[in-house]
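Long-time lurker. I teach an intro course on protein structure, and each term I like to show students one example going from raw sequence to a predicted 3D structure in token notation. This year I'd like something fresh instead of my usual example. Would anyone be willing to generate the tokens for the chain below so I can use it in lecture? Attribution to the forum is fine with me.
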Amino acid sequence: VAPMLDEKRRNILEIRLLLRRAAILHRDEPIERKQEMVARMLELTADPDDEETCRLRLAALVNDSMSAYWRTGHSDSGAMERIRAFVERYPALRRTEAYLAYLNQIVMWSSLDGEVDRLRQVEREAEEMLRDLTLDDEFRVSLKRAVYPDLLLLFGDTEELARRMKDLAELESGREDRYTSGIHFCKISLLERTGWLRKAAAACREGIP
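-- Reply from a regular --
Happy to contribute to a lecture. Here you go:
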């Protein structure tokens, strides 16, 4: 007979299943169902007491932030501040996929809204993280792919543009993942902005990866 899971392990299993469902079906779920799932995620992670439950709490908070955007079409400053405050309490969480998803949300929404100062702020944070010699190579790649695509249009002179083009080449040479489509969209926008209209049209014809 299989041993019974204690309440904590049952809750962890449930939250992981909810997070997986949200990741796979987020485009197809009705908004009401999304909100129900997020509410349950927040309930299950209300009292994190170890590294695993802190990571799950952060993932729930990031989903809560995204849920607010689904509901209103705008970023929720309160939801964002709850994430920031939680990570300040547990700074090790900056090295998690959930935190990368949070940074990705900020640059994506800031790019859409033309919030240059906010984009620069995230860029400085990403550069600070990348200077940390203890950061493993895989996480470095994920960090760049989460943040750098939406920074491609952020340039004020030819030197900075050259750096963005170098970033684009590095991003395109990487593995295919959940950021690949976003990288392709940002590439097209960069080519259009810099006058490479034929290359932009060719990239459009390639389709979205």
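Some talking points for your students: The chain has a mean pLDDT of 90. Residues 61 and 83 are 6 Å apart (CA to CA).
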